[in-house]
Amino acid sequence: MLRKESEDNAILTGSLNSEINTAKENVISIMNRIKELQEETKSKYSEAEILKFEEDFKKSWYEKVNRNDVLNLYQTSKKRFETSANEKMKDLQNLRSSYNGKWHSSYDCYQVEDNDEFDSELKKLSENDLPRHLDEIAEAKIRARDQLKNDFLSKMSDNIKNVESQIRDFNSILGKYTFGGDTYSFSVTPSKENRNFYDMFMDDEFLLSPNFESTLFADSFTNKYEKEIDMLFSILVPERASVKADKDIEKQIATYTDYKAYLNFDMNVKDSSGDIQKLSKNMKYKSGGETQIPFYISILVSFAQVCRMKSMKGRSTVRLVIFDEAFSKMDGERIRTCLKLLKEDFDLQVIFSAPPDKLKDVAVYTNDILVAYKTSGASFIEKFRKSDELKDE
Residues 345, 263: one domain? Predict the structure, then answer.
C-alpha cells in the first residue's frame, strides 16, 4: 500500500511532465522546419528579394487578419491549458495530502510545484525500504512454513494416530459381542481425496525418526512432499481477499485443520458365515433392528470415548447417557447384548425409557425400574419391584 501511494504520485507527476515534454518537442519540430525553410529560401533568393517578400507578407497578413480574432484564440487556448493544468495540480495536491495523512508525513503539498520530495520518497522506498521489507517477508514466510511443518503436521499426525488407536481398542471390545449372529467393528481408512496429505502425515520418516525436529527439516522429507506442503501453506496462510472470499477461506481452513478430513470412517458387519460387509453400502437393505444396532454402538462408543478422554485429563466424569424410546426395534437378545456392553465394558450410567414389552429384557441389567401409569386423566410413577425383591419381603 505504501508503495502504491508513492507510485500514484509519481504517475500523476509523470503525466504532467509528459505533456510538457510533448509540447517542447512540437515547438522544436516547428522551429527546425522553419530553419529548413529559411535555408531553402536563402539558397533560391537574394537577401533583397527575401526582405521584399517579408514586407509584402506582413502587409498582406495585417490587411486580411483580424487582430482581435488572433488575440481571442490565444487567450482561449491559454485559459483552457491553465484550467487543465490547475485541475491536474489539484489532483496531485490531493494525492500528496492523502499520502501525508495516511503515513504521517510532513511534505509540502500545496506550495511546491515540483514533486521532488515525493519522488525522492518513492526512490527511497523502491531502492532501500521495499527490498528490505521483501527480505523480511520472505524470512517470515520461511518461519511460517517451518512452523507449519513443526506444529500442524505434528498435530495432524498425532490426532490420526490417536483415533486409529482408539478404533483398535473399541474393536477389541466389540469383538467379544454378537448381535443376532453379527459382529461389528469400526474401520478407519485414508480419504481418497486427501490421500497424499495422509501419506505425508504418516510417513515413516516423519514418525520413526528419533530426532523429530530434524526429520521435519530434512531435505528428503521436504522435497518428497513439497507440493503438499505448499498447498497446505496456501490454504492455511492465504492472501487477503474480499469478504465473500474470506468466508470461503474460513471454511477451507476449518476443513483442512480437522484431522477427519483426511480419514474415512465406516462400520463393518460380519455375519455368522464370516462374510464382511460395509454398513455404508448395505444400510438400506437392513431391517429395523439391524439398523438400530449400529446406531446404538456408535452412540455408546462416542460417549465412552468422550468420558475416557476426560478421565485421561484427570477430570472426573458422571458418564451419564440418556435414551428415549430405547431399543424399540430390537429383539430381546440384541437388547441384552447392548446393555451388557455399555454396563460392563464401557462403564456408563444409563437412564432410558422403553415400552412395557421390553421390561423383561432390560430388567436383568438395570438397578432400578420406574413404571409410569396413566388412568382417568391422572399420571403417576411407581417403582417396579423384581421377583427376587418380592421374595425377600
Answer: no
| Residue 243, H or E segment | helix 243-256
Cα(265)–Cα(189) distance, integer angstroms: 7
CA distances from 287 to 175, 278, 338 (A): 22, 15, 17
Q: Is 166 exposed, middle or buried (0-12, 13-18, 19+ CB in 10 A)?
A: middle
372 and 332 in a common domain:
yes
Instruction: Find the CATH number of the domain harbouring 341.
Output: 3.40.50.300
Domain containing residue 210: 140-277
The DSSP 8-state label assigned to residue 129 in this structure reads I
Terminus-to-terminus CA distance in the chain, angstroms?
Answer: 88
pLDDT for the residue 218: 59
Nearest alpha-carbon partner for 296 in 324, 264, 265:
324
**Number of C-alpha atoms within 13 angstroms, CB side, residue 13?**
21
Last residue of a domain, one of 244, 260, 277: 277
Our count of domains for the chain comes to: 3
Q: Read off the pTM.
A: 0.55
Residue 135 resides in a domain: no
Q: Cell triple for residue 28?
A: 522544436
Strands (E), the chain: 183-190, 263-270, 276-278, 320-323, 349-352, 369-375, 378-384
pLDDT band per the 50, 70, 90 thresholds, residue 3: very low
| DSSP secondary structure letter of residue 392 | H
Rounded Cα–Cα distance for residues 37 and 54 (Å): 14
CA distance 200 to 322: 41
Tally of CB atoms within 10 A around 135: 10
Segment holding 20, helix H or strand E: helix 2-44
Mean pLDDT of 327-350: 82
Phi and psi at residue 348, to the nearest 5°: -105, 145
Tens of pLDDT along 170-220?
888 888 888 878 888 999 999 999 999 999 888 877 655 534 454 444 567
Q: What is the DSSP letter of 120?
A: H
Distance CA 112, CA 117 (A): 9
42 is written with which cell numbers?
Answer: 536563402
